[in-house]
Design goal:
Order of helices and strands: HEEHEEEEEEEHHHHEE
Low-confidence stretches: 1-6
Strand order of the largest sheet: 2-9-5-4-3
CATH superfamily of the largest domain: MutM-like, N-terminal
Distance between the termini: 43 Å
Mean pLDDT: 92
Number of domains: 2
Number of strands: 11
Structural class: alpha+beta
Helix content: 10-25%
Number of helices: 6
CATH architecture of the largest domain: Alpha-Beta Barrel
Largest sheet: 5 strands, mixed
Shape: globular
Radius of gyration: 20 Å
Length: 289
C-alpha cells in the first residue's frame, strides 16, 4: 500500500514516534553548527542560538502534549511548538534544503536535523532548562501555553480526574478535546477519530454526555492514539517530516463509506478546520448559536 501524506497538525501519536526516532538515532550527537534561515520562528531566550548551541551534544527528546523538547548538554533545550505546519527532518546534509526550512542543525557525520514550517506558524524556543548546575532558573514558563497544559492524553489519567476536569468546560465536545488545558496532545484529526470510536457526535455539549459515554470517551482517548502510534511506527520510518494520515477511519474522508455502517462520512469545513463524522454512528444535531 503506498504511503499517503497530507497536511495536518502534528499530534501526540506523530510526536511520540518522532521523539522515539530522535532518541534512537541522535543520542550524544554533537551539534557542530546551527543556522537560522527563517528568524521569525525562533525565540532565543537563553542566548543567541546560532552561537550558543554549537559545541553541545544532543541528550534526548521529550514530548509534552503537542510540544517537542530537545535537550542538549550544558542545560539548554529547544522547545518546539509545531502548530499547524511545523515538522522535523533528519537527513544527509547533501539533501536539498527545502524553501520551508527554518532552522538547520549540523550533527556531524554528514547529517542534519532541520525544522520545516511552510507557513512559519510554529515556534522554536531556545531556553535554559535549569539542568546545568549553575543555579539559573529554567525558562519553561516563558514558553507560551507550555506550563498551562493539562495532563498528557497518554499519561494514564484516571477516569475520575478526566471526568472532574471535563466539568470545568462548556461547549461542544470536539472543541474541548482539542484544548490543551483539558488534556494535552489531541488535535483536530485525532479528535475526529476518538469521537468516531466512542460513537459520540462532535457537536454534543460536554455537559450532555451520559456516564457511559464519558467512560467510553475516556477509554478511546488513549486507545485510539496508542493504536495510531503502532501504525505510525511501521509506516513513518526515517521520514519523520511527513505526516501519515491515510489510515485514519473518518478524518478527511468526507463522502467515503463509513467503516462501521457503510453510509457516507459527513465532512464540514469551518474556521479552517475539518470535522469528519458519521451521522448514523454518531447521532446528534448540529446546532449553531
Amino acid at each position: 500500500m503506498p504511503v499517503s501524506y497530507i497536511k495536518g497538525m502534528p499530534e501526540a501519536p506523530d510526536l511520540e514516534v518522532i521523539k522515539d526516532y530522535l532518541n534512537a538515532n541522535l543520542k550524544d550527537a554533537p551539534v557542530e553548527s546551527c543556522r537560522v534561515l527563517r528568524p521569525t520562528v525562533v525565540r532565543s531566550l537563553a542566548a543567541e542560538v546560532t552561537g550558543d548551541l554549537p559545541g553541545r551534544s544532543f541528550l534526548d527528546a521529550q514530548r509534552r502534549g503537542k510540544f517537542l523538547t530537545l535537550r542538549f548538554s550544558g542545560g539548554r533545550s529547544l522547545v518546539i511548538n509545531p502548530m499547524l505546519t511545523g515538522a522535523l527532518q533528519h537527513c544527509p546534509e547533501s539533501e536539498r534544503v527545502q524553501k520551508k526550512t527554518c532552522v538547520v542543525l549540523g550533527l556531524g557525520g554528514g547529517m542534519e536535523l532541520r525544522y520545516l514550517d511552510g507557513r512559519q506558524m510554529g515556534k522554536v524556543y531556545y531556553i535554559r532548562n535549569g539542568e546545568d548546575g549553575s543555579g539559573g532558573e529554567a525558562q519553561d514558563e516563558q514558553v507560551p501555553q507550555y506550563t498551562s497544559l493539562g495532563p498528557d492524553v497518554l499519561s494514564g489519567i484516571a477516569f475520575e480526574d478526566f471526568q472532574a476536569r471535563l466539568k470545568k468546560f462548556n461547549g461542544e465536545i470536539k472543541g474541548v478535546l482539542t484544548r490543551g488545558a483539558f488534556i494535552s496532545g489531541i488535535g483536530n484529526a485525532y479528535s475526529d477519530e476518538i469521537l468516531f470510536a466512542a460513537g459520540i457526535s462532535p457537536f454534543k455539549k460536554c455537559r450532555a454526555l451520559k456516564p457511559e459515554e464519558l467512560r467510553t470517551l475516556h477509554i478511546q482517548c488513549r486507545q485510539v492514539l496508542e493504536e495510531a502510534i503502532e501504525t505510525l511506527r511501521s509506516r513513518m520510518g526515517s521520514d519523520i517530516h511527513k505526516k501519515v494520515r491515510d489510515f485514519l477511519k473518518v478524518h478527511n474522508k468526507g463522502g467515503q463509506p463509513c467503516p462501521k455502517c457503510g453510509g457516507n462520512i459527513t465532512q464540514l469545513n469551518s474556521n479552517q478546520r475539518i470535522t469528519s463524522y458519521c451521522r448514523h454512528c454518531q447521532p446528534g444535531l448540529l446546532v449553531r448559536n
